[in-house]
Write a structure and sequence with these properties.
- The chain is α+β, with helices and mostly antiparallel strands.
- It folds into 2 domains: 67 residues, VC0802-like; 70 residues, 2-Layer Sandwich (Alpha-Beta Plaits), CATH 3.30.70.
- Strands 1, 2, 3, 4, 5, 6 and 7 form a 7-stranded antiparallel sheet that branches.
- The longest helix has 13 residues.
Length: 145
């Protein structure tokens, strides 16, 4: 796999007004940019999945503030414009027989192209399959400012 994989932080928050804003403001005040975001909501808690410009600094900040979180590697690819690219990437993963646990689009567009973050069963197999299909796999340094 590549040397600097993209890391996602999953933050566990009470589901009440203002908690998401508080976490995003905390990151912003520390100069950490949110590059990707998805929220899985339930009645009591929410899991906020974040890709940031500096995952190490965000982890340190969360630890210092007592904010519970987890971390995992993500596969991030550039998509050429159009729905066909998404279908091609999904077909490639199917052919590689690796499952997608979840995915979401990022807020940033390096090189002006849409980006997709994927959490997959086998990140190395998925990266090889997608690279051989012509997709560019991005590293953390490609996303960080």
């Amino acid at each position: 796999m590549h040397s600097a994989p993209v890391r996602q932080l999953s933050v566990f928050l009470l589901n009440k007004a203002g908690t998401l804003f508080g976490v995003l403001k905390l990151l912003q005040d520390a100069g950490i940019h949110v590059l990707g975001l998805t929220v899985e909501d339930s009645v009591d808690v929410a899991v906020v999945r974040l890709i940031t410009s500096d995952p190490e600094a965000a982890e340190t900040l969360f630890m210092e503030r007592g904010i519970p979180f987890g971390s995992c590697e993500m596969l991030v690819i550039e998509l050429p414009e159009g729905v066909e690219a998404l279908n091609k990437s999904l077909h490639g993963l199917l052919a590689g027989e690796t499952n997608i646990h979840f995915l979401y689009a990022l807020l940033v567009r390096p090189q002006g192209k849409p980006t997709l973050a994927l959490h997959v069963e086998d990140i190395d197999v998925a990266a090889r399959v997608l690279q051989s299909a012509g997709f560019r796999v991005l590293q953390q340094t490609d996303l960080s400012r």
